[in-house]
Q: What sequence folds into this?
């Protein structure tokens, strides 16, 4: 097992994690990296925010209040 | 025109915009919206009035958008030059470290209650390369599962991950520039 991930590799895994469950070994390496890497911690919070934002956007797109629309 | 038809017609521009963002093809978007409006007019009784008219129409539109993608599968996934471009080399140095660490977005959730934020998010989606935009919208807006997207577009799971990886990095970049930077310069200027 490689001992450390680079930020580039960590970022790739974090993005992949949005789509499917990572293999346990990858997940472990990722956890270790993020724990010690301040820049990747920020990337994680940005990704988390983007996930919440797209969820809110979906709701907004479907039902934002349209003044021309009597409710 | 009946009141119902008129109300539906008024929503056409908004529906068209959503369809365009997802399909990235004006003719397909027009078709999806027309089919949506026809379906709505044919079955007004299925609009129970429980939800807003727009919510109901968007529900129909999602199906029509998927129909369009299905009809145009081959064209929809032809990878054009700009889709091949990876942001990674711009973000990371040769040793794999960030060139510039991601910025602190502060308390970004306040953004989600603002109309302008969703406007920026939509513009950012519109500025993605076409295939990236399509898969991103299928995933996030149509809420399709990965394997459904792969089937509809006839791509492999790893193709899909690469496309979504690129789309998310670009969106992050776009939000940084168009929302977070723009706002901090407003605050500084005030």
A:
């Amino acid at each position: 097992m490689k001992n450390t991930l680079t930020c580039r590799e960590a970022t790739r895994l974090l993005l992949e994690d949005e789509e499917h469950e990572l293999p346990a070994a990858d997940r472990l390496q990722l956890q270790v990296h993020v724990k010690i890497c301040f820049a990747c911690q920020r990337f994680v919070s940005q990704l988390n925010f983007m996930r919440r934002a797209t969820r809110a956007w979906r709701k907004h797109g479907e039902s934002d209040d349209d003044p021309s629309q009597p409710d | 025109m009946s009141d119902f038809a008129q109300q539906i017609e008024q929503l056409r521009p908004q529906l068209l915009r959503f369809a365009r963002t997802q399909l990235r093809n004006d003719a397909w978007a027009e078709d999806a919206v027309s089919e949506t409006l026809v379906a709505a007019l044919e079955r007004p009784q299925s609009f129970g009035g429980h939800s807003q008219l727009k919510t109901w129409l968007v529900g129909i539109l999602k199906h029509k958008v998927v129909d369009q993608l299905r009809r145009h599968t081959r064209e929809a996934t032809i990878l054009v030059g700009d889709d091949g471009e990876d942001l990674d080399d711009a973000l990371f140095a040769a040793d794999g470290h960030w060139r510039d660490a991601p910025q602190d977005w502060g308390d970004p959730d306040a953004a989600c209650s603002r109309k302008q934020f969703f406007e920026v998010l939509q513009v950012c989606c519109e500025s993605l390369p076409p295939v990236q935009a399509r898969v991103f919208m299928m995933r996030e807006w149509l809420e399709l599962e990965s394997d459904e997207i792969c089937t509809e577009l006839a791509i492999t799971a790893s193709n899909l991950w690469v496309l979504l990886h690129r789309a998310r990095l670009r969106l992050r970049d776009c939000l940084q520039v168009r929302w977070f930077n723009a706002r901090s310069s407003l605050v500084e200027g005030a």
Chain A touches chain B through 35 residues (CB under 8 Å). Residues 64-71 of chain A have pLDDT under 50 and may be disordered. The longest helix of chain A spans residues 38-63. Helices of chain A lie at 7-17, 24-36, 38-63.
